[in-house]
Amino acid sequence: MPQRFRNLSYSVPWNLWLLLSGSAIFAFGLKAVALPYGLITGGISGLGLLLFYVTDLFSPGAWYFLLNLPIMAVGWIFISRRFVLYTIFGMVSLSLFIELLPWTVVLENKFLAVMAGGALMGAGAGISLRSLGSAGGTDIVAIFLNQRYNIRVGQVGFTFNMLLFGAGLFFLNPNDVLYSLAMIFISSWVLEYFLGMFNQRKMVIIISDRQQEITDSIKTNLRRGVTLLHGMGAYSGQPKEVMLTIINNIQLKRLEEIIYRVDPKAFTIVGTTSNVLGEGFSRRKQY
């Protein structure tokens, strides 16, 4: 991968674009789809909606902005100032989009709103979190816990939402709360998909007596590295050369053709990785 593409993820325009587009998509799902049907969106935005439904003191966008202010201190102290500055941009963008978007999506029933709202908000949050910041809210706490304890971002949000919906049962129609829970389940799944879709690769383990030919062909035709492991067959007791390589989904079919053209008796294992860091793949994200 050329150096300029690897550096793109750290450029200011790219990160601002991710935050702006992610906030717009999330706000559309909230304002145009979830809000007209009385749904709670989850996270700090959902807490803001609950307070809006119960108190009617401020608009949802204003509640979102006010609730985020103390959370920014967590990011400033435990993550980085750069992260907080990007997040302030994302938070202000999302608050403004929520306030200014004029559209309402009319759907046949509330279940369609659950699916559409969950997908839009999950996609928007996932795009924002691909940046070096976030759109605010529980994302800040989730990133802190992910960095310190490797807790998945979606799990943090889902746990917070369970507590939020428990409180919502005392103030809202139970049917709306259950619909909202289903919407957040969809949102969490889409969020995790967007966070992992650019980092997933195929890990392929190859066992063959023609190791050198396969290795050379992989390096020449796919331009991928190969790690050689020394193994032994448990049944035969004979030493075996085991090859391990990491490729993308597009290259998988070509790799199969390379392997079985050289050795029709080769044994291969293909697994999907959740993340690959290193030369030729993603770099470790530093906030």
Written overview of the protein:
With 287 residues, the chain is of the alpha+beta class. It folds into two domains: 3-196, no CATH class; 202-272, Alpha-Beta Plaits (2-Layer Sandwich). It has eleven helices and four strands. It has helices at 3-8, 12-34, 43-55, 60-78, 81-100, 110-129, 138-149, 153-168, 174-196, 211-222, 252-262, and strands at residues 202-207, 227-232, 239-247, 267-272. A four-stranded antiparallel beta sheet has the order 2-3-1-4, with no helix packed on it. Helix 10 (211-222) packs antiparallel against helix 11. It is elongated, with a radius of gyration of 23 Å.
Secondary-structure map with pairings?
Blueprint: H1 3-8, H2 12-34, H3 43-55, H4 60-78, H5 81-100, H6 110-129, H7 138-149, H8 153-168, H9 174-196, E1 202-207, H10 211-222, E2 227-232, E3 239-247, H11 252-262, E4 267-272
Antiparallel strand pairs: 1-3, 1-4, 2-3
Morphology:
elongated
- Distance N terminus to C terminus? 22 Å
Number of helices: 11
- Strands in their spatial order, largest beta sheet: 2-3-1-4
Instruction: Give the strand content.
Output: 5-15%
Transmembrane segments: 12-30, 37-55, 61-79, 84-105, 111-132, 153-171, 177-195
Membrane topology: Multi-pass membrane protein
Protein name: DUF2179 domain-containing protein
Pfam families: DUF2179 (PF10035), YitT_membrane (PF02588)
